[in-house]
Amino acid sequence: MNIAVLLMASLVLLSPAACSREQVIPEHLEGRVEKDLRYVQVKENPEAYRGKLMLAGGKVLKAKRLQEGTRIEILQYPLSEDLIPATEDEPSKGRFVAIDLGDKNVIDPVVLEKEDDEEKLVTVVGEVMGTTTVKIDQVQQPVPELAIKHITVWDRDNRGYWPYYGYYPPYRWGYGGYYGYPYYW
Question: Residues of the signal sequence (predicted)?
Fold first, then answer.
C-alpha cells in the first residue's frame, strides 16, 4: 500500500501542471518577477514599468533574427494558473514584442515556427524596455517591448514545457536545452 501512495504522489509531482510553474520562472528570477503586473497595465503606460520583470504570453506571430538578437512578435493572451497562454478563455488585449538580446545563446527563429498551421505558444519572463512599433496590415502601431530573460515554448500536443536555454531546440522528453535542467522524466 505504501508503494501505491508513493507512486501516486510521484505522478502528481511529475505532471506538467505541477512542474510547469517552476519551469516558467527560473529559480534565479523567482523573487524578481512582478507577478501582479499585467499586460494591460504595461500597454497603457510602458514607461512607468520600464526595468520591471513581468510574465507575458501568447501566440508567436513572427520571429526574425536581427544583428542584436531575435525579435519575436507575440499576440498576447492571459496566462492560466500554470502560466500557459489561455487562448480559449479570454480574448487577446493586443500585441507585444519580445527581443532576445543574449550575447551567445540567441533563440533560433525556427524553434518558434508554426507546426501544422498552429502557432507556437510561449510564456516570457521579460524586462519592460518601453515601446516599439509593429506593422499591422498598413498601419504602424506602438506596442510594449520586453527583453527576454527566460522563454518557455509550449508543446502543442499536451502543452508540456520546452524551456529554451541555448543554441539547440529543446528535446521533447525532458532535456532542457544547452545548459541542461534538473527535471528529467
Answer: 1-20
